[in-house]
UniProtKB/TrEMBL annotation:
Record's catalysed reaction(s): uroporphyrinogen III + 4 H(+) = coproporphyrinogen III + 4 CO2
Alphabetically ordered keywords of this record: Cytoplasm, Decarboxylase, Lyase, Porphyrin biosynthesis
Pfam families the record matches: URO-D
Binding positions for substrate per the UniProt entry: R23, Q24, A25, G26, R27, D73, Y151, S206, H321
Entry-linked InterPro entries: UROD/MetE-like_sf, Uroporphyrinogen_deCO2ase_HemE, Uroporphyrinogen_deCOase
EC annotation from Swiss-Prot or TrEMBL: 4.1.1.37
Site (Transition state stabilizer): D73
Name of the protein described by the UniProt record: Uroporphyrinogen decarboxylase
Protein task: Catalyzes the decarboxylation of four acetate groups of uroporphyrinogen-III to yield coproporphyrinogen-III.
Spans through the membrane: none
Domain of life of the native organism: Bacteria
Residue span, Uroporphyrinogen decarboxylase (URO-D) domain: 18-27, 139-155
GO molecular function, one term: uroporphyrinogen decarboxylase activity
């Protein structure tokens, strides 16, 4: 049975434009909070294939999206590289041993050894393939090397990125050494997700906007392109989605290139501009401002505007970033139904 989401990634004819939401398995769903409470902690939930499988499927049953995205976290990679990760309530993820020197890089577990430690992720995917409806696609994912490196160097989330950007300008060789190690693991990690059953993979560069546009290719995009090329060469039937957040200036500079299928457009990038620059080369995904979900009326307006721009061709509906925890579930359902309504082919 064909999957509408996979078909859309390859620009095949679909009965309507498919839709899913970043962070669709998450805190806005009471059912998710119940399972997370049972797990005891966020990391425990990531490490428990049965429970991770359950929360991955919830948005399909409750909200009606067209694809499931694996429930996990981008930071499981540096965690399994041997870094000391803790999720602290009210603070978020913290690495107690951030990378400062080449010696710190040398102590990291790398390559196949690190990728093989992520068995709970692959087990979750295998369980999902048994339980997901045949017409629903499963999206695997990873953080981009730059986004992962920012956490590994800063030790936690940051608004200034001063430690990793200090390294970028004063010791670029060290930063490239970190990015190289992470890139090599990410390639294997995505490959193992595909081997376990993922139908699509997405690379999230959440902190892309922290890099000035003239340096973005050197310190992020080229590594993402290398990963995509590795996957497409070995698995041409698997769509690859790139989502670099906040790079409208980079798009304007004609900086986007590479062998992948879908480009995620953040809410700060005009969809019409992205379509004019890249719509003939890549399927575009996005890009409603997530806060519009607080208003059904504003959601409908935005969905209609995006449909008017994209005309149901070379497009996947999504938010321009993740759904927020206090969004009413009924509003998320409204978004999905509206996307399907405005794009339905007669």
């Amino acid at each position: 049975m064909s999957k509408i989401f996979v078909d859309a990634c390859f620009r095949k004819e679909t009965p309507y434009t498919p839709v899913w939401m970043m962070r669709q398995a998450g805190r806005y769903l009471p059912e998710y909070m119940e399972v997370r409470g049972q797990a005891g902690s966020f990391l425990n939930l990531c490490h428990n294939p049965e429970k991770a499988c359950e929360v991955t499927i919830q948005p399909l049953d409750i909200v009606g999206v067209d694809a499931a995205i694996l429930f996990s976290d981008i930071l499981v990679i540096p965690d399994e590289m041997g870094m000391d990760l803790e999720f602290i309530k009210g603070q978020g993820p913290v690495f107690h041993d951030p990378i400062e020197t080449q010696e710190d890089v040398d102590r990291l577990i790398c390559g196949e050894e690190a990728a093989n430690k992520l068995t709970y992720v692959y087990e979750t995917i295998k369980l999902l393939k048994e339980k997901l409806p045949e017409d629903k696609a499963l999206i695997g994912f990873t953080g981009a090397p730059w986004t992962l490196a920012t956490y590994m160097i800063e030790g936690q989330g940051t608004k200034t990125y001063n430690l990793c950007k200090k390294m970028m300008y004063s010791n670029p060789e060290l930063l490239h050494n970190i990015l190289r190690k992470v890139t090599d693991i990410v390639k294997l990690y995505l490959e193992k997700q595909i081997q376990a059953g993922a139908d699509v993979v997405q690379i999230f560069d959440s902190w892309a906007a922290a890099i000035e546009p003239g340096r973005y290719d050197e310190f992020s995009w080229k590594y993402m392109v290398e990963i995509a090329e590795y996957i497409k060469e070995k698995y041409p039937h698997i769509p690859v989605i790139m989502f670099p957040k906040g790079i409208s200036a980079f798009i304007n500079m004609d900086g986007v290139y590479g062998n992948f299928d879908v480009l995620g457009i953040d809410w700060g990038t005009p969809m019409a501009m992205a379509k004019a620059k890249l719509g003939d080369k890549y399927v575009l995904q996005g890009n409603m401002e997530p806060c519009r979900l607080y208003s059904k009326e504003e959601t409908t307006k935005c969905v209609e505007k995006i449909q008017e721009t994209m005309q149901g061709e070379g497009h996947i509906f999504n938010l321009g970033h993740g759904i927020l925890p206090d969004v009413p579930v009924e509003n998320a359902i409204h978004f999905v139904k509206e996307c399907q309504r405005v794009s339905k082919k007669s």
